[in-house]
Amino acid sequence: MELSFSRTNEEIDKLIDQVFAASGDIHHPTVIREMVLSALKIGQEIDYLADLKLINRTLREMRYTAKVFGPYRHKKKVTVFGSARTAPDEEMYGKCVRFSRLLVSKGYMIITGGGPGIMQAGNEGAGSENSFAVNIRLPFEQAPNSVMLRNPRLITYKYFFNRKVAFVKEADAVAVFPGGFGTLDEAMEVFTLVQTGKTSPKPLILIDDEEGYWERFFNFVKQSLLVKGFISGEDFSIFTITKDENEAAEVIQNFYHNYHSMRFIDHRLVIRLNKELLPEQVATLGEEFPELVREGDKITCCSPFPEEADEPDLAALPRITMLFDHHHYGLLLAFIHRINTF
User: Fold this and answer.
1) Residue 168 is part of which domain span?
2) pLDDT for 34-91, tens place per residue?
3) How far apart are CA 322 and CA 342, in angstroms?
4) Whose CA is closest to 98, among 304, 220, 249?
5) In principle, which of 68, 128, 222, 276 could form an S-S bond with 318, CB 3.0–4.6 Å?
6) How far apart are the C-alpha atoms of 323 and 33, rounded to whole Å?
7) CB-based contacts of 220: which residues, under 8 Å, 6+ apart?
8) How far, in whole angstroms, is CA 9 from its chain's centroid?
9) Are 256 and 172 spatial neighbours (Cβ–Cβ below 8 Å)?
10) What does DSSP assign to residue 143?
């Protein structure tokens, strides 16, 4: 029998309804029904056991991730990346401890990879009660650190791609300390997701050491990427480099001074705010950032769209909206910084 996501499966649809009734407390049954049908279609279409195991494990890991993070949805979080090999007596370890402790004092929670080095420093500064650890099974270096061992907010993944989703999806900001291939991979992932609009805009702070680890990276980006046209000047809005953990925390705090969150409804960008903008302020944004708005449209204040009904906790927030030109995600970050000056 060829299964369909529309209700044309006759007996199968009735059986799914019965399973839901017997299970009870199924949230958003329309979505869950599609997931059940997807699983059945996978069983019909794929006979290669290794692929089935990968899909199964992925779903299980994503389910558990949502379960662990769900109760803390109202709390802002900062993901901290950095070397697993940074020793507790090194300068950057202490800087990370202070940085995380400062963020917790401002109401944030910390997400790390749960291992040693900078990851342990982030959890140590935040304290176990304000920390998440999204660990990965590796043959070396990545046993859970002593701060997060047996913590209910410790998640251990088999697959890097599931872990990366948690790092970025759950974070309101990302701080990257010096590190090796893994740290650079994680930083470049966030660069790419923000640049292409595949994650919501968020502060990306590169916290430097005294030798200028990130300054050398910045010079490489200018000389080898910008000069050759591989990136544009507006992409430099994606990140901030600082040696000062206090400045790093201030950048994160200021990013959410008035900007709250955003959402796309088709190609229309809806930006939620902490306080309403005056008409003259909206007009100023239109004059200063015409590149962001598609021809024939303009930036306006608006009420919640019907599609936002699935986020009822945000319904009371004031909003502005525009038809967005998707070529300018780097400039969108500068736009948010401008909103925060009002």
Assistant:
1) 73-255
2) 999 999 999 999 999 999 999 999 999 999 999 999 999 999 999 999 999 999 999 9
3) 19
4) 249
5) 276
6) 33
7) none
8) 37
9) yes
10) S
